Amino acid sequence: MLILGLVTLLIFPLPTLLLRPWIEGIHWLELLELNNLQWKPVLLGLAYGLGYAVLASFFLTMRIFQEVPLRVEETVKALNLSIFEGIFLSICAGFGEELLFRAGLQPYLGIWLTSFIFIAIHGYISIKTPKNSLYGLLLFPFIIGISYGYEIGGLWFAVSAHFMYDAVLFTKINLSPKS
Q1: What sections of 79-154 are H helices per DSSP?
Q2: Which of 39, 67, 151, 177 is 20–30 Å from 109 (CA)?
Q3: Cβ-based neighbours of 154, under 8 Å, separated by 6 or more
Q4: CA–CA gap between residue 78 and residue 94 (Å, rounded)
Q5: Do residues 111 and 151 touch, judged by C-beta distance below 8 A?
Q6: What is the Cα 109 distance to its own chain's centre?
Q7: H helix runs in the chain, sequence order
Q8: In angstroms, rounded to a whole number, what is the distance separating the alpha carbons of residues 106 and 115?
């Protein structure tokens, strides 16, 4: 799991950090928005991620989600992550995936298509088993929100929102008793 986290953290950003500077002449450090790292977007991102994680947790307890063949909670539980591993993976996904999707793809593909691709790549859309797409439908507004938040608040809003969402759900799922 830690290797997967490191791949997400170090490899996922490479297309953004290599291609956008080559295509647009932007220095790769500009893409990291370190000069724009401010508390307000980070805190708003953390609050947004926390709020949506609480909302998603509530919906996941509903009967319709209990009938989904491939349940997110079971998938995460099967990973048997420690709290540290869950936080580490949340950091890696928050940074690596947001740099790839928001800073890399979104400027070219737009908010809606990038968000759809994000959901699809995570396996939350299934034509063969439509009920498996319920989690994708639940997550889609969150990802759209992150995408608009990126446009307004920058990369660090998106990173902090993604991190917090994952961290809360990983922690909640891993602390819950096995079914």
Answers
A1: 83-98, 106-121, 134-153
A2: 39
A3: 33, 36, 41
A4: 21
A5: yes
A6: 18
A7: 2-10, 14-24, 28-31, 39-60, 63-66, 72-78, 83-98, 106-121, 134-153, 155-175
A8: 8
